[in-house]
């Protein structure tokens, strides 16, 4: 008797499945097509991005070769093309390299190029901070402390890759401006950061010794 009931249950399930299929098959097929199309589209996107990155890498190496050969005009044009059309990672690198090449001939113009990189939200934060550091290094001798602070302070935060260098540059700039309070602030930040490189810590201690005694409250 139980076998008869089992057969009846199976027949009922088959009948229910048939009705469901007749009613919803078009949606099931459409969903399957969308899934296959989506996977295929994503794979296609990944392939195109990888191809674009490889092409940008080759173009970047070629541009560096032009620069090293002294073909500055051709190198500048090549880096500009990568910055405009290359993959995201190489766009930032191309702009950084173009600014570095410009620094030898015109430090102020190069600093402006670095400032443009630092202000571009499409550029990775690490590359933005590197641009800030390089611009500040170029302008250290001529730029007042207030402008150096405006330029570099975003890179001094905890967890930022170039925070140690940014803090040291600001300490030096404040010292040059005879602002002992500001110099001490940055030097203390260097000394209190457990990850500060030993060589930088030694330089900070040496500069600290040159400062006048802090005023007693």
Automatic annotation (TrEMBL):
Gene Ontology CC terms, in alphabetical order: plasma membrane
Bilayer-crossing residues are 24-42
Answer whether the UniProt record assigns the keyword Transmembrane helix to this protein. Answer: yes
**Keywords attached to this entry:** Cell membrane, Chaperone, Membrane, Transmembrane, Transmembrane helix
Starting at the broadest rank, the lineage of the source organism is: Bacteria, Pseudomonadati, Pseudomonadota, Alphaproteobacteria, Hyphomicrobiales
Q: Pfam families annotated for this entry?
A: TPR_21
* InterPro entries the record matches: SecYEG/CpoB_TPR (IPR018704), YfgM (IPR026039)
What GO annotations for molecular function exist for this entry?
Answer: protein-containing complex binding
From the Swiss-Prot or TrEMBL record, give the protein name. Ancillary SecYEG translocon subunit/Cell division coordinator CpoB TPR domain-containing protein
Q: Where is the Ancillary SecYEG translocon subunit/Cell division coordinator CpoB TPR domain?
A: 18-158
